[in-house]
Design goal:
single chain, about 100 residues, mainly beta, Rieske Iron-sulfur Protein, six-stranded antiparallel β-sheet, 9 strands, globular, binds FE2/S2 (inorganic) cluster, iron, metal-binding
Length: about 100
């Protein structure tokens, strides 16, 4: 696992945008816990950091498709999955698996 940030940097309003090797990922604060996802929407690569988060559901700004950040499932297309990464908190450090979950 790789350190990508600190808990003190997270806010419920907007995700943290960080690099994970050559990938860009987002760290959301969901129900008080960090959730790591791909930065681009699996539909047509929309910028998910500009999406709207309501509870555990993130709505993509480009076409309004919704993704559950806990499961990765897409409401509009059950075959589409938002890529997520395992996260561990160690003290204030946020550690993320370099391999998608
Ligand atoms: S690019 Fe995200 S819904 Fe189309």
């Amino acid at each position: 696992m790789m350190k990508v940030g600190e808990m003190s940097e997270l806010s419920a309003e907007k995700p943290l945008r960080v690099s994970l090797g050559s990938e860009k990922i987002l760290i959301f604060l969901v129900n008080g816990a960090p959730v790591a996802t791909a930065a681009r929407c699996p539909h047509a690569h929309g910028p998910l950091h500009q999406g709207e988060l309501c509870g555990t559901v993130l709505t993509c700004p480009w076409h309004g498709w919704s993704f559950d950040l806990v499961t990765g499932e897409c409401e509009e297309d059950p075959d589409l999955l938002l890529q997520r990464y395992d996260v561990k908190v160690d003290g204030n450090d946020i550690l993320v698996s370099q391999v998608p979950a």
